[in-house]
Amino acid sequence: MIEVSNVTKKYANITAVDNISFEVKDGEVVGFLGPNGAGKSTTMNMLTGFIESTEGTIKINGYDISKKPKKAKRQIGYMPEGTPLYTELNVKEFVTYMAELKFVKGKEKKDVVAKVLEETGLTEVKDKLIRNLSRGYKQRVSLAGALVGNPDVIILDEPTVGLDPKQITEIRNLIKNLGKKHTVILSSHILSEVSQICEKVIIINKGKIVAVDTPENLEKKTQNKNTIIITVEDQNEKMQTIKEKIREIEDIKLLKENGDGTKQYAITSNEKVDLRKDLFEVLPKEGITVLELKKDETTLEDAFIKLIDSDLLKKAEEKDKIQNEDKDKNKNKEKEKQKEKNKDKKQDKEKIKDKIKNKEKDKGGKK
Amino acid sequence: MWAVYKKELKSYFLSPIGYIAIGIFLLAFSAIFLFTTIFVRGYDMGSLYFYIAILGLPIIIPVITMRMFSEERKNGTEQLLITSPRSITSIVFGKFFAATTIVIITLLFSLLYYVILCFFKAPNLVTTLVAMLGFLLLSMSAISLGMFISSLTEHQSIAAILNFGVLFLPIITSTFFGVEIPFINLAINYQKFPSGLVSIQEIVNLLAFMIMFILFTIIIMQRRKSVK
What we know:
Distance between the termini of chain B: 25 Å
Order of helices and strands of chain B: HHHHHHHHH
Oligomer: heterodimer
Largest interface: A-B, 30 and 23 residues
């Protein structure tokens, strides 16, 4: 169980993480998503006690990481970003050292290390120097270091960066299995990975949490319309008349004309309606042959981009507003200035007129 | 502490640094042994340790201490250490004693010269042991300084050069210009040990110096958490 409440991290003049709060329950696999520089690693580093938060509290299984660091850190297995390792050691020595650091006692140590090496598929290379291992294996060694000692909470910072597709699927399966016994937090900017492995996603952007939800819900939330992509052979050009036959259709848009006489359309409707059945029934009656029909689903990728873009948009709008207000203020000020100037001019004119009048009066008096 | 100690000591001998440090140490011992005993037909072990302390330590201690924290910081492995449930104090002491062990190993080797002299006329063993004890204390002070410097930078070479400078500067100023820099001149506290005298003042000075820089290192490492 991880409880993060109102955590802020400030550097000299940058706020890297801005007042974030979230909770990860026991046995959950949570993905931490965000573009580069969003504050993912900073948050991870605070969770593991590598850096201290400026404000707020972080509790791991009930232990405050800044007040009871030893107990809190015993609950955590951490795989840092970029897999730092002691390259002069061999695999077994490294994992044993990690076990010793985590207070695994002498008798159990051998078994614990052997078990972890087995789990991560490192038994074959256990006597090789880490320096000589390939990147994928190094990643696994780092993961083994995090797993050894059987900690409740496992924190993985970008665990699949730089791996080949086969290694990625292997590591993903490993992480999925971990979720059965442990609480897992992993950060990533690969969205498909998160939607595959994680039950919950936390999206962070510019140090703030933008969304916390399941990948499915996030996809639904950002999906406003139901879109169906359909490829048809339509010799009588009747496609646009379909709209009258099926009332739920809101829009039919031609996407492209294929060279072989077939056309691809995008048909949108209200989100609750599934048009696929109706289309299959109606189109053949109109003499249109359906070649392909599929639902266009928003992926987590779309959701992610939308969420972050909307965040950016809001900020841009706010900026615009402020600028416009400033402009308006400036304009008003200028107008007022001009009015004052005009007033001054008028007053000057009147004064001159008065003077002339007075002079004339004086002249008249003398006469 | 012992987990860190064991691993650090192992690392010294998995990389060439442990061998290089002990090698240079023994080379210096042999060279100075020639001048202090063989050429002058003496059997004074004390002056052997004294000259090693002045000429050898400023070169060897930086070699031993330069990578202590800077390498961890550069490779990012300090993340593994700091996020482990070990306290920073125990990590610092583990590393400190591992480096001290390298000096102890060399000192044990240096008994060889005592054995050589025994063939001619055995020097006083207690006097020799006192000189060695003083040398060990002196080395530990220098190691604590080197460790502190290593915790300040992520570049091993900068740590080594700085450490060398700080250790060598007072020796240059006192021999060539006659100017004493009392605080950082560790050799001042190694005047009575070589002749077999145990001086409380020297012991206290060296211990105080050592503890101070160990504490500084702990503070630096702890501060980094909130500054970083």
